[in-house]
From TrEMBL:
Database matches in InterPro entries: CBS_dom, CBS_dom_sf, Diverse_CBS-Domain
UniProt-listed PANTHER family: CBS DOMAIN-CONTAINING PROTEIN (PTHR43080:SF2), CBS DOMAIN-CONTAINING PROTEIN CBSX3, MITOCHONDRIAL (PTHR43080)
PROSITE patterns reported for this sequence: CBS
Gene3D superfamilies named in the record: CBS-domain
Protein name as catalogued: CBS domain protein
UniProt keywords, alphabetically: CBS domain
Organism lineage string: Bacteria, Pseudomonadati, Pseudomonadota, Betaproteobacteria, Burkholderiales
Domain CBS stretches: 7-68, 76-132
Length: 176
């Protein structure tokens, strides 16, 4: 499975000069936990960072922010971790683990941002695959159980102990 199949294509962005309150409202409005932070220059809008709901809460509290003028760009993570839409999910997991992030920016073949892949997206994909695997295993076990029941001797017939033949006994039972 490829990253492009799993990533959220609707990227919600915010200008780096927006306030933390504006960022929180935008996250709430769109039910997302991260925003792509952008800056604007003569060539257009560029990705310059990522800010998460956790950043808003923890950074604001750690700084004891009373100032409504604090801007998103001041707390955004500016080290961006990109992954190709054609990368497989194993590569995405490695990128997250190596970089210590829970969200990856997904780039398309034209090097433009096409989505965001979160750890939650990966967990959801893996859990769906595990559910399929469990179903396959249970189906196989049920098939084996049915086949074994057909091959088993009927319960109402006694099982005979061979006295002579192919089977040999490893010990002697006394008193029989």
């Amino acid at each position: 499975m490829q990253v492009g199949d799993l990533c959220k294509r609707q990227v919600i962005s915010i200008e780096e000069q927006a306030t933390l309150v504006e960022a929180a409202r935008l996250m709430r409005q769109h039910h997302v936990g991260a925003l792509v932070v952008t800056s604007r220059d003569a060539q257009g809008r560029h990705v310059c960072g990522v800010v998460t709901d956790r950043d808003l809460v923890l950074d604001a509290l750690a700084r004891e922010v009373q100032d409504e003028d604090l801007r998103v760009g001041a707390i955004a993570h500016t080290t961006l971790v990109l992954v190709s839409e054609h990368a497989d999910i194993g590569e995405a997991v490695q990128a997250m683990e190596h970089s210590g992030v829970r969200r990856l920016l997904v780039k398309g073949s034209n090097d433009q941002l096409i989505g965001i892949l979160s750890l939650d997206d990966l967990i959801e994909a893996y859990s769906a695959e595990l559910e399929t695997l469990v179903r396959i295993i249970r189906s196989g076990m049920a098939r084996e159980a049915r086949a074994n029941q057909l091959a088993a001797a009927p319960a109402d017939q006694p099982l005979l102990i061979p006295s002579i033949g192919r089977a040999t006994w490893a010990s002697v039972v006394v008193g029989v």
